[in-house]
Structure to design on (389 residues):
């Protein structure tokens, strides 16, 4: 199906001005950046008088489409329709672009056009400004060309994407509920088993280290597995796009070679806090500088229990509390050794693992369903805007 092509500036008013007729005493909806979720929804709204916000904030009206302009909010997908606003107009963060459609464009259709990975990748490539303060300029939006089908076709496409997105959200809600149930049960079970007693993790470790730097020079088509931070998932190690090394015969290689019973923890960057027991098929592998090896005293601490605990809500709370650095967070060995873990027997740890594994099995099924629905949604978006839906 062939659609006509139009620039966004031809079918939208981009960042429209505030009407001069607004009454200063009138109540307006107010949306800080946090109010717009990465799931394409308005999570909450506040209420302000026009006088409070008419200067220094972005104006919009019910029915407009909002999209974040600043990094990393833009790349993370912060955008939303505004039909749910309680007031007919509102104000929000200056880091929003506002799109107000003309009569031949549906807001729902436009929203899905700008709320997808392809648009975000293109927008990120056209950002201006310095690192940490990069923004998508209004000129990029004005020049952006889109295929514009007739209104009825826009309505059909938006309805299909609404249904697919609703299914995806419903499955994610079920996953979140199960995750919360697991966390609550785990916390209750551990408190009961330990009577609230804890001990520093360092008392249960025989060894702790992290990988060496600049191991890319050892990359090889075959050899020993090299585990990077992106390979460490919560309670599992990914085998997607694996890297191998021809490890040297030196002290660093001997120090960073993994053993049976090791637990791997990511200690720097955006993926900090991912943790997994080393599986048997990866014994003898090596780790990057962003991954720590925790080697528990097996007579006192089971690796699987340690992994499950550090991945729990309480474990993650401690990781978030003790990490240092803002632009590139990290954990040092002293902080890791200071984590407080429940003081319970090895037999109690085994029973805890059995419960946690049952939850993880159900969560794994739910996560797989979520991935499938997200993939379906992305595929439908791609087909919709290429005239193939």
């Amino acid at each position: 199906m062939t659609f006509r092509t139009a620039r966004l500036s031809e079918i939208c008013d981009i960042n429209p001005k505030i009407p001069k007729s607004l009454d200063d005493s009138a109540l307006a909806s107010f949306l800080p950046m946090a109010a717009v979720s990465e799931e394409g929804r308005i999570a909450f709204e506040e209420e302000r008088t026009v006088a409070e916000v008419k200067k220094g904030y972005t104006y919009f009206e019910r029915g407009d489409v909002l999209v974040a302009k600043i990094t990393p909010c833009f790349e993370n997908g912060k955008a939303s329709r505004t039909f749910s606003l309680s007031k007919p107009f509102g104000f929000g963060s200056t880091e929003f672009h506002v799109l107000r459609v003309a009569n031949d464009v549906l807001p729902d259709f436009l929203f899905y056009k700008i709320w997808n990975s392809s648009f975000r990748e293109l927008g990120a490539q056209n950002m201006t400004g310095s690192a940490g303060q990069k923004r998508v300029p209004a000129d990029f939006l004005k020049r952006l060309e889109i295929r514009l089908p007739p209104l009825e076709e826009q309505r059909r496409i938006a309805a299909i994407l609404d249904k697919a997105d609703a299914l995806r959200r419903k499955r994610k809600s079920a996953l979140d509920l199960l995750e919360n149930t697991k966390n609550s049960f785990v916390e209750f079970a551990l408190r009961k088993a330990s009577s609230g007693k804890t001990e520093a993790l360092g008392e249960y470790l025989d060894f702790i280290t992290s990988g060496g730097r600049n191991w890319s020079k050892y990359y090889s088509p075959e050899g020993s597995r090299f585990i990077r931070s992106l390979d460490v998932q919560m309670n599992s190690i990914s085998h997607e796009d694996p890297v191998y090394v021809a490890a040297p015969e030196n002290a660093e290689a001997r120090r960073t070679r993994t053993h049976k019973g090791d637990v791997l923890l990511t200690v720097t960057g955006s993926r900090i806090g991912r943790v997994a027991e080393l599986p048997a098929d990866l014994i003898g592998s090596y780790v990057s500088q962003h991954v720590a090896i925790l080697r528990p005293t097996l007579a006192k601490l089971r690796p699987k229990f340690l992994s499950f605990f550090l991945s729990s809500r309480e474990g993650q709370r401690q990781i978030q509390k003790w990490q240092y650095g803002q632009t590139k967070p990290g954990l040092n060995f002293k902080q890791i050794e200071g984590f407080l873990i429940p003081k319970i027997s090895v037999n109690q740890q085994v029973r805890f693992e059995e419960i946690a594994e049952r939850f993880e099995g159900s969560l794994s099924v739910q996560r797989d369903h979520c991935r499938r629905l997200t993939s379906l949604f992305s595929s439908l978006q791609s087909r919709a805007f290429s005239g193939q839906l």
Residues 198-342 form a domain with the Adenine-n6-DNA-methyltransferase TaqI; Chain A, domain 2 fold (CATH 3.90.220.20). The chain has a mean pLDDT of 92.
